[in-house]
Amino acid sequence: MRHTRRAIRAAHATGHALVAAACGLVGLLRYAAETGRTVRIAYTKEDGTASIRDIRPEQVRRSKAGDLYVRAHDFLRDAARTFRLDRITALEAA
Q: 3-state SS of the chain?
């Protein structure tokens, strides 16, 4: 138990908790893409503008710079859009 707590503290201190959270998000988005499900995301743009979007994920990919993105149909814009995963603040089934 003590080792687990140390590992959790170390992960938080080094940012690995964010990686673990992103892996969970990636899995959920890939599952939605494979099953054709729609999900609702809270998304914050680079300028800080927040929005709620209903999307149907199509593909999760990593850029050459190492950032993770999801390509999806955005029902708000009725068009294909790309969302950066580290800007998704919440996700739920729509």
A: CHHHHHHHHHHHHHCHHHHHHHHHHHHHHHHHHHHCCCEEEEEECCCCCEEEEEEEEEEEEECCCCCEEEEEEECCCCEEEEEEHHHEEEEEEC
